[in-house]
């Protein structure tokens, strides 16, 4: 697959951009292809690249333990929580947080079948934003909407988790 095979107009992050803007955005992306069994991103590793899945299928997972924790969870066969399995149908984005803040990766993206990704890095992304502020505003607004939705979803899941924990502790006679 090459960059010319990708229909940028279909990707949510770029929807509504004029053709001239899409040409400038297209120029900062390359294509990365991975085989089944490979990790695109590994939780805890540093990174500054953002990826958009354009063909294939991946699994997103997180460790159930924080680094340095030692808990008696030997009966648990896999200490990773699968958050989602996604394909290219919604053009999912991975790595946008590390693209912006250069922090460590917050999840692992494991390739389940041969897959192709658009990829850009921090230097190319911010160079485009410096040269083309109008495009930068649209891209940042789209990324901000995506991150806001992720935060809202995480908040909802946290409430469910803390409620379930409180109920479980109350049934065991423990006090929170």
UniProtKB/TrEMBL annotation:
SUPFAM superfamilies: cAMP-binding domain-like (SSF51206)
Coiled coil: none
InterPro entries associated with the record: cNMP-bd_CS, cNMP-bd_dom, cNMP-bd_dom_sf, Env_Response_Regulators, RmlC-like_jellyroll
Residue stretches making up the Cyclic nucleotide-binding domain: 13-146
Domain of life per record: Bacteria
One Pfam family it belongs to: cNMP_binding
PROSITE patterns named in the record: CNMP_BINDING_1, CNMP_BINDING_2, CNMP_BINDING_3
Name of the featured protein: Cyclic nucleotide-binding domain-containing protein
The organism's taxonomic lineage, starting at the top: Bacteria, Pseudomonadati, Thermodesulfobacteriota, Desulfovibrionia, Desulfovibrionales
């Amino acid at each position: 697959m090459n960059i010319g095979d990708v229909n940028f107009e279909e990707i949510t992050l770029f929807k509504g951009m004029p053709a001239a803007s899409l040409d400038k955005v297209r120029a900062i992306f390359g294509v990365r292809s991975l085989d089944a069994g490979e990790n695109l991103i590994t939780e805890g590793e540093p990174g500054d690249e953002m990826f958009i899945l354009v063909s294939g299928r991946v699994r997103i997972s997180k460790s159930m333990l924080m680094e340095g924790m030692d808990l008696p969870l030997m009966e648990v066969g896999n200490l990773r929580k699968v958050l989602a399995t996604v394909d290219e149908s919604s053009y999912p984005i991975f790595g946008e947080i590390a693209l912006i803040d250069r922090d460590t990766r917050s999840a692992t993206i494991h390739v389940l079948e041969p897959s192709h990704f658009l990829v850009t890095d921090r230097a190319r992304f911010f160079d485009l934003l410096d040269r083309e502020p109008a495009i930068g505003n649209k891209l940042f607004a789209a990324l901000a909407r995506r991150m806001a939705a992720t935060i809202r979803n995480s908040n909802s899941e946290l409430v469910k988790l803390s409620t379930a924990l409180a109920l479980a502790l109350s049934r065991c006679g423990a006090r929170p």
